[in-house]
Amino acid sequence: MEEANRSVVHEFIFQGLCNSKELQIFLFLSFSILYLMTVVGNLFVVLLIITDPHLHSPMDFLLANLSFVGFCLSSVTTPKLTTDLLKDKKTISFGGCMSQILCVHFFAGNEMVLLVTMSYDPYMAICKPLHYSSVMDRQKCIWH
């Protein structure tokens, strides 16, 4: 009887990013600055839309959600990438890798749904202006 391969993967080793310590530090600083700008920008948009009473239209609500999803999406992989640039042993566990993949797919799918919904808003405003206020209100955006 043939013996099946019963090897189990416990971790993945990252290779090929770069071997130069100077380049790793440069990439660490670059990715850290870009990540910080992304986080601050997205959270600023969310806080601005929440606190400003003039920004409570359905499109503003969807934009705040899109910014929050952008914050979450960038926070899934970037911290692990930047910290691994400074480590000698660049590994990720199998569970950690699968968790990252699941989160990236979840947040990217959520982002696509939000973008489709955001494109539906101007369609309703232009093509069916009399129905706009009954179709695109905040409660329906929350539940759909």
Automatic annotation (TrEMBL):
GO terms, molecular function: G protein-coupled receptor activity; olfactory receptor activity
Location (main, coarse): membrane
Chain segments annotated as transmembrane: 25-50, 62-79, 91-108
Domain G-protein coupled receptors family 1 profile: 41-144
Alphabetized UniProt keyword annotations: G-protein coupled receptor, Membrane, Receptor, Transducer, Transmembrane, Transmembrane helix
Highest taxon of the lineage: Eukaryota
Subcellular localization: Membrane
Gene3D superfamilies hit by this protein: Rhodopsin 7-helix transmembrane proteins
Membrane topology: Multi-pass membrane protein
Pfam families documented for this protein: 7tm_4
GO cellular component, one term: plasma membrane
Descriptive protein name: Olfactory receptor 4K15
